[in-house]
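Retro notes (design track)

What went well: tokenization of the new backbones is finally stable.
What didn't: we kept losing track of which sequence belonged to which structure.
Fix going forward: every design gets posted as structure first, then sequence, in one message. First example under the new rule, 314 residues:
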């Protein structure tokens, strides 16, 4: 395992007493995986990442990165990791190229190797034309790509991303997702925190749903939806409710329907899967006077609601 977190606790002392930011987290992330910590602000995600990246000390428990204990050997552990924190850490007095180049030199590359690596990374992240620009002259999305390029310049085994999409517009977010996904080709493991369900769904091989400093569930996004009874929901609106009871019985008997219920305007259908089912539902509903149909796909937000009882972005 490239990342091993065991019985991790972090408690802060405040004027009103002790506050547990992390309350016993256990995680294992194999090499090459994109792993997500999904939860609301204050769930303990950033504290966990801070401990993993040697920026904070745990109250108890342990973290090993590539087999190195981050508390006992922090300097050695940092060689194996790249870090992109929530806030922008680019040196505003250096150009884009220089930000990457001096990171390479810091990690021991000679001038020629650092220059070659920096040029290759700017090419990889589509920044080659902005090498002489200052960070303040770039968009938020471009700055984030520079931070990722710099973080992997020394060939780390694992990259930690803390809320990588925060503050980005949709186009920049998609470009950042593509940049992260491309790291698979280099064999880099990625651990990211996010409170965007679509980000976790799009990027992550596995997701740990975290709240109040604990892991509530851990699996692939698809498995989490299946395990927690998250269905595709079909909202059928009918012209009138006269035929609704008979239609309800007909639809409830179809294969793939978990359950169905009457609503004020028609019928709500909870489906395990839509393959082959949707045409049958539409045909039956049309005969009964279908006025409108809305499909709501399963989401990690629904999983989170079932696990915590509150919305993900609270």
């Amino acid at each position: 395992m490239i990342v091993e977190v065991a019985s991790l606790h972090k408690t802060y002392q405040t004027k009103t007493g002790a506050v547990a930011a992390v309350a016993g987290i256990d995680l294992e992330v194999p090499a090459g995986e994109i792993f997500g910590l999904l939860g609301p602000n204050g769930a303990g995600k950033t504290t966990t990442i801070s401990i993993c990246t040697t920026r904070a000390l745990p109250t108890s428990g342990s973290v090993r990165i590539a087999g190195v204990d981050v508390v006992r050997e922090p300097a050695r552990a940092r060689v194996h990791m790249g870090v992109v924190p929530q806030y922008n850490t680019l040196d505003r007095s250096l150009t884009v190229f220089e930000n990457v180049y001096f990171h390479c030199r810091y990690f021991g590359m000679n001038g020629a190797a650092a220059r070659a690596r920096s040029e290759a990374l700017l090419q990889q992240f589509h920044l080659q034309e902005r090498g002489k620009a200052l960070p303040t002259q770039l968009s938020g999305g471009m700055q984030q790509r520079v931070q990722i390029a710099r973080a992997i310049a020394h060939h780390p085994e694992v990259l930690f991303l803390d809320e990588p999409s925060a503050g980005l517009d949709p186009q920049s977010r998609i470009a950042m997702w593509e940049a992260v996904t491309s790291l698979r080709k280099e064999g880099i493991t990625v651990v990211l925190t996010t409170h965007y369900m679509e980000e976790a769904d799009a990027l992550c091989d596995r997701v740990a749903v975290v709240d109040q400093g604990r892991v509530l569930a851990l699996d692939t996004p698809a498995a989490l939806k299946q395990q927690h009874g998250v269905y595709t929901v079909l909202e059928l609106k009918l012209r009138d409710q006269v035929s609704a009871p008979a239609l309800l019985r007909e639809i409830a008997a179809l294969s793939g329907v978990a359950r169905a219920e009457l609503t004020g305007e028609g019928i709500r259908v909870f489906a395990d899967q839509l393959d082959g089912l949707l045409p049958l539902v539409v045909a039956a509903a049309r005969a009964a006077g279908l006025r409108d149909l809305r499909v709501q796909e399963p989401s990690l937000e629904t999983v989170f609601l079932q696990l915590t009882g509150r919305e993900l972005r609270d």
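Added context from the reviewer: The mean pLDDT is 91.
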